[in-house]
C-alpha cells in the first residue's frame, strides 16, 4: 500500500515537471534605462497559450545573495499581464550588481525562469542636460546648464562624480549655409564664450559624458541666439528721435481728446441757449412780466363790452368830452383844476356827425411815471392791445375802443 502512494506522488511530480517544461518562458529580456530609471521588458509567444491569458512574475536579487544556499529574491511585479516591469522604486543601488528574472504563469503552471544581469553604473544610460539657457552680455555669449536629473529629482553628479559636458557651437550665417563647428568641454554649469563675433547669430548643442564606462548622452536640441556689440551713435540718435516724436504724438492726442471731450460734456450738460433779442430791453435788463407791470402801475380801467380790441387814440372827439375839461389844439385834455372834482370816468358820445361807431374812453388816473411808452409797447405786443404813446407829463390819456 505504501508503495502505491509513492508511485502516485511520483507520477504527479513528473506530470507537473513536464507541464512546466512544456510552458514557453519569456525571451528577449532587455533593461530600458535612463539615469536611475530602470524598466525590464520582454517578449512572449502568445500562440503557445492559445486563447488563455498568461501572466508574468518579476524578481531580482543581488549577486552576492546568489552565493548562498537559499538566496533572497525580491518580487517586484507579481502576476502582471503586461510585457514590462518598472524597477525604479525597488531601491537598486547605482553601483550594485543584480540578477533580474521573469517567469510565465498560465492556468496554475509556471515556466522556467529567464534572467538577465544588470549593473546600473555600467548598463544604465545617462541623459543630456535637463535644461540649457543662453544669455548675451555685449559681444560675449553666456551658457547656463542644468544637470541631468535622477529619479529623485537630484543631480546625476551624485552617482557620476566625473560627469562633464561636451559643447558644440557654430555660427549661423544669413544665407543658410553651414559653418565650421567648434567644440569645447567643461564640467561647470555656467561658462562664457568670448571668442565670438559681435552682431552674429550662434547655435549651441550640449551632451553629457562620463569616461569611466565611456558613457555619452544624446545632444540637446539646437538653441540659437544673436550676440551684441557697441551700438553706433546714429542708432542711438534715431531711437531718441523716434521716442521724442512718439511722446509728442501721444501728448497731442491726449490734449485733443481732452478738449473734444470737454466741449461734448459742456454741450450736453450746459447748453448755450440765448434769449431772443425782442425779450431784452435797450439797457440789457430782462423785461418784467405783464402782470407785474400792471401791478406797479395799478391803473383804473373800465372796458366796454362792445369791443374786444382796445385802441389808444390821442385824438378824442370834442363832442365826447365831458363838461369841465378844456380842449386844446392837439386834442389832449388837461386835468381839471384843483377845485373841481378829482373823479374821472368814461364818457360816451351818443352819436357824432362823422358817423363813427361809438367809442369807449378809458381814463387812467394817477399813472405811475415809470410806465413809459416802451412798456406800453410791450403790453400791446403781448396782449394784442394797440397803445398810443403816452406823454410823460400828462396825467390822463383817453383810450377809445
UniProtKB/TrEMBL annotation:
It comes from Poecilia formosa. Residues 326-348 are annotated as: Disordered. The keyword Transmembrane applies. InterPro entries: FN3_dom, FN3_sf, Ig-like_fold, Interferon/interleukin_rcp_dom, Type-II_Cytokine-TF_Rcpt. This is Interferon alpha/beta receptor 1b-like. GO terms for cellular component: plasma membrane. Residues 1-19 form the signal peptide. The chain crosses the membrane at residues 233-256.
Amino acid at each position: 500500500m505504501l508503495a502505491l502512494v509513492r508511485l502516485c506522488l511520483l507520477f504527479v511530480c513528473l506530470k507537473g515537471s513536464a507541464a512546466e517544461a512544456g510552458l514557453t518562458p519569456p525571451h528577449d529580456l532587455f533593461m530600458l534605462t535612463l539615469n536611475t530609471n530602470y524598466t525590464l521588458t520582454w517578449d512572449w509567444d502568445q500562440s503557445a497559450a492559445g486563447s488563455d491569458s498568461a501572466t508574468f512574475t518579476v524578481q531580482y536579487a543581488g549577486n552576492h545573495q546568489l552565493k548562498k544556499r537559499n538566496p533572497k529574491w525580491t518580487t517586484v511585479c507579481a502576476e502582471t499581464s503586461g510585457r514590462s516591469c518598472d524597477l525604479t522604486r525597488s531601491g537598486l543601488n547605482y553601483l550594485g550588481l543584480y540578477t533580474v528574472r521573469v517567469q510565465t504563469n498560465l492556468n496554475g503552471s509556471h515556466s522556467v525562469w529567464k534572467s538577465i544581469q544588470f549593473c546600473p553604473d555600467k548598463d544604465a544610460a545617462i541623459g543630456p542636460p535637463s535644461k540649457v539657457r543662453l544669455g548675451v552680455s555685449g559681444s560675449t555669449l553666456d551658457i547656463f546648464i542644468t544637470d541631468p536629473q535622477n529619479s529623485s529629482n537630484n543631480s546625476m553628479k551624485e552617482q557620476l562624480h566625473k560627469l562633464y559636458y561636451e559643447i558644440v557651437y557654430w555660427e549661423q550665417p544669413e544665407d543658410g549655409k553651414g559653418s565650421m563647428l567648434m567644440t569645447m568641454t567643461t564640467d561647470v554649469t555656467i561658462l562664457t564664450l568670448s571668442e565670438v563675433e559681435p552682431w552674429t547669430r550662434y547655435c549651441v548643442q550640449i551632451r553629457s559624458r562620463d569616461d569611466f564606462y565611456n558613457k555619452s548622452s544624446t545632444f540637446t536640441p539646437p538653441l540659437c541666439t544673436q550676440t551684441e556689440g557697441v551700438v553706433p551713435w546714429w542708432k542711438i540718435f534715431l531711437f531718441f528721435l523716434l521716442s521724442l516724436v512718439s511722446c509728442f504724438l501721444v501728448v497731442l492726442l491726449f490734449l485733443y481728446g481732452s478738449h473734444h471731450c470737454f466741449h461734448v460734456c459742456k454741450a450736453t450738460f450746459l447748453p448755450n441757449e440765448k434769449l431772443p433779442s425782442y425779450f431784452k430791453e435797450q439797457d440789457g435788463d430782462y423785461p418784467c412780466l405783464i402782470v407785474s407791470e400792471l401791478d406797479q402801475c395799478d391803473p383804473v380801467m373800465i372796458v366796454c363790452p362792445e369791443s374786444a380790441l382796445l385802441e389808444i387814440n390821442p385824438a378824442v372827439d370834442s363832442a365826447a368830452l365831458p363838461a369841465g375839461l378844456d380842449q386844446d389844439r392837439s386834442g389832449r385834455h388837461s386835468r381839471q383844476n384843483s377845485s373841481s372834482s378829482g373823479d374821472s370816468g368814461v364818457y360816451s358820445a351818443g352819436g357824432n356827425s362823422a358817423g363813427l361807431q361809438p367809442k369807449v374812453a378809458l381814463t387812467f388816473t394817477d399813472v405811475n411815471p415809470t410806465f413809459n411808452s416802451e412798456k406800453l409797447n410791450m403790453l400791446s405786443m403781448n396782449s394784442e392791445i394797440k397803445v398810443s404813446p403816452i406823454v410823460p407829463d400828462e396825467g390822463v390819456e383817453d383810450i377809445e375802443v
